Amino acid sequence: MNTSMSRRRALGLGGAGAAAVLLGTGAWSAAGAYAAPKSGGPFTLGVASGDPAPDGVVLWTRLATDPFAVDGKGGMPATPVRVEYEVALDERFRAVVRRGSVVATPELGHSVHPEIHGLAPDHEYYYRFRVGGEISPVGRTRTMPPLLSNPRELNFAFASCQAWQDGYFTAYDHMAEEDLDFVVHLGDYIYESGVGTNKRGVVTDPRFHTEAMDLARYRLQYSLYKVEAPLQNAHARHPFITTFDDHEVEDNWAGDISKVDTEPDQDPAVFRQRRAAAFQAMYENLPLRRAQMPTGPDIRINRRLHYGRLADLTMLDTRQFRDDQPCGDGDGVDCTDRLDPNRTILGGPQREWLLDGFSRSRARWQILGNQCPIGQTDRDPGPALDVWYDPWDGYVADRDRVLAAAQDRGVRNLVVITGDRHQNYAWDLKRDYADPASPTVGAEFVGTSITSGADGADMPQDGVNFLAANPHMKFFNGQRGYVRVNVNRERWQSDYRVLPYVTQPGAPVSTRASYVVEDRVPGVQEA
Ligand SMILES: [Fe+2]
Question: For position 22, what pLDDT does the model report?
Fold first, then answer.
């Protein structure tokens, strides 16, 4: 609250904020800080907020009295249910500024996504839901600063890759304690695979042994993740800005192409039905705005958010519009298809939208929320170039076009934040990786996983010395965690927050390293 008040004073806002309309103390019963939802009540999956704007946010909850009901319907009746919500200036709801209600329908898994408008910019709010006599846990959120303001600083964290079967979500308990404006999630929020014997023990319930293929099963998979207390804590504490990678649907999917040839979805028409189920379950379980509601197998997840004039955040979709991976989906040294100038990872329209944003943006920091690494990753410290084909290394023409355009169109500071790799990197983005003298045009911070890959280690993995093989790489770490970022007008700082283990609960967190980018100095430097 202190931070919020001092920030508001810095912006010259009045007491309750220009847009606040006090509705008096709530008639709802007592509430306080976030408390775990009651099992058997309708709020077993927690609460969340997302996609902050200067005037509001989207709130989220999904009603499920029995989140593991076999039909995926959460124990809810086949009828609509009215859900009330309140937004207040304080966590005891003495100063309520918005009240309303929305209808949770069985068609959308009894999820609700009320979009709140008319709030004050750069301000902290609390929210909760009510159904009948049941009141949800309390969430906290923040609005963005005014579009044309020049905020002094931005604090956020980014995360990705949370395979439930690989460990505990302890990192989210630590993230909930950070002082952040928002959290960016870069994908692999769920993994579609079946769960049996795993790093947490054994799941005996056979419903979880099969891979998610239809809506009921994807919904169950989300329930498995969403009942986790650390994940609920982080959502209740910070607004999230999310995109997806491959595992929200299927490992390594590309456009209409399924990647597991033992499954019945080799026909693109069948795979598109699966994609529709996966996107719907994702929408039902995340704080996404109506603009991100899928239409069958299609979704618009790429979008832009603005933190005043300090930073633009462009969220990308590198799955839905990509060409098939070249030369199979693996890695190697002799794939020339990956250099084909006609191949794309963004698709033409999204690429033009991205580059158009480069031309128009007046933000000091241009942040790309990206899924798989854009920087070249050589796996061979010797003369050979051995790369993976699924990330941007398989789509070199698009990488070159995007990085060249950032420089040619005068992007002041390009910083890409990335997930997927289950490793922490800090490295320079090069205009042309084939030319050692090529200029550095930006920075990329690759964040490790929340759990995927289990405990990990603070050293090169799989026998590959990535630092030796990639001269543009300044930092490597293979532990679990997330990246905390502080951005001001002069510099960006990434703190790599790591946990020593995730296969047991309760791990502490520490900052393994910090890397910075200085204004108008492309590339990363040790802090
Ligand atoms: Fe992943």
Answer: 53
Instruction: Give residue 505 CA to ligand 1 midpoint distance, Å.
Output: 20
Q: Of 372, 359, 356, which Cα lies nearest the Cα of 316?
A: 372
Ion ligand 1 residues within 5 Å by Cβ: 161, 188, 452
At 106 the pLDDT is: 97
The set of residues, in sequence order, having a beta carbon less than 8 Å from that of 157 and lying 6+ positions away, is: 175, 178, 180, 183, 184, 238, 482, 483, 484, 485, 497
User: How far away, in angstroms, is 420 Cα from ligand 1 center?
Assistant: 4
**Strand segments (E) across 395-490:** 414-418, 424-430, 440-446, 456-457, 473-488
Residue 451 carries which side chain, given as an amino acid letter? T
The whole-number average pLDDT for the span 170-176 is 98
Q: How far is the CA of 188 from the centre of ligand 1 (A)?
A: 5
Spatial distance between the Cα atoms of 506 and 107, rounded to a whole number of angstroms: 38
pLDDT band for position 404 (cuts 50, 70, 90): very high
| Confidence category of residue 273, pLDDT binned at 50, 70, 90 | very high
pLDDT: which is higher, 290 or 28: 290
3-class DSSP state for residue 146? Answer: coil
pLDDT at residue 37 in the model: 74
CA of 283 to the centre of ligand 1 (A): 19
- The Å distance, Cα 372 to ligand 1 centre, comes to 9
Q: What's the CA-to-centroid distance between 371 and ligand 1, angstroms?
A: 9
Q: Reply yes or no on whether the pLDDT at 7 is more than 50.
A: no
**Euclidean distance between the first and the last CA atom of the chain, given in angstroms as a whole number:** 29
Q: How far is the CA of 184 from the centre of ligand 1 (A)?
A: 15
CA of 245 to the centre of ligand 1 (A): 8
Q: How far is CA 318 from CA 5, 92, 244, 389, 395, in A?
A: 39, 42, 9, 13, 11
d(CA 504, CA 456): 13
CA of 383 from ligand 1 middle (Å) equals: 29
Determine phi and psi for 341, rounding to 5 degrees. Answer: -65, -15
**Residue 40: per-residue pLDDT:** 78
Confidence tier at 469 by pLDDT (50, 70, 90): very high
CA of 166 to the centre of ligand 1 (A): 11
Tell me which amino acid residue 413 is.
Answer: N
Is the predicted pLDDT of residue 72 greater than 60, yes or no? yes
> Ligand 1: distance of its center to the CA of 160 in Å?
7
Helix axes 215-226, 229-237, angle to 10 degrees: 80
Average per-residue pLDDT for the chain: 93
pTM (two decimals)? 0.94
pLDDT at 31: 52
Residue 385 CA, ligand 1 centroid: distance in Å = 23
Q: How remote is the CA of residue 215 from the centroid of ligand 1, in Å? A: 21
How far apart (Å, rounded) are the C-alpha atoms in residues 211 and 217? 8
Q: Tell me how far apart the alpha carbons of residues 447 and 416 are, in angstroms, rounded to a whole number.
A: 11
Cβ neighbours of residue 400 closer than 8 Å, sequence gap 6 or more: 431, 432
